[in-house]
Amino acid sequence: MKKSRTIFKLMAFIAIFMSAGWLSGQSRWRFDFENGAAFNGYNDVGIPKSTGTRFSLTEGFDVKPVYFFRLRLTYRIGGRHALSALFAPLSFKASGRSDVPIRFNGTDFLLGADVNALYRFNSYRLTYRYDLVDTGPWKVSLGFTAKIRDAAIRLDAGAIESEKTNVGVVLLQLGLQTVRQSN
Question: If I label 176, which of 81, 88, 93, 109 is the partner at 20 to 30 A Cα–Cα?
């Protein structure tokens, strides 16, 4: 969590710096910010898949919508090359009483236990793009995106708790992108 705050502060500083005009006057830099509400409509869990109890983190648990944001910083290298980095944290908290005994990640949670859960799926992406065509209203680019997934599910019932984490690199995209630009 401390790492997420540090990255958020860094990205916020860059956004303020750019909006002040120090970097935005140079067409090499671009900053994008997205935000909104995220809803956890379906989230079935069973860890490990072979011996863990399959249960829902949304049915029988109170899961409120959360505020989300995504930050992207893009730097143009020369005329046709671009690098961008994306930071997209996402966490849901759920609480409720288990209506079945739960075996999660080798730990047993009793029937009727008051359970607090955390579902985290942070995403960090790095994209390289080469613009093949950038004339008139059309832009055609070739590139790839790699993603680092920082995921965790944690259950806590007072003295009993367990967490399953997963960090990994995923190749998301390798291909062409065609965009019609508005003037």
Answer: 88
Quote the CA–CA distance of 126 and 138 in Å, as a whole number: 24
CA 94 to chain centre: 18
Predicted TM-score (pTM) of the model is 0.76
Q: State both tokens at 73.
A: 């910083």
For residue 95, the one-letter residue type is S
Q: 113-171 pLDDT, tens per residue?
A: 999 999 999 999 999 999 888 887 888 888 888 999 999 999 999 999 999 999 999 87
d(CA 156, CA 111): 14
Alpha-carbon span 142 to 41, nearest angstrom: 35
| Polymer length in residues for the chain | 183
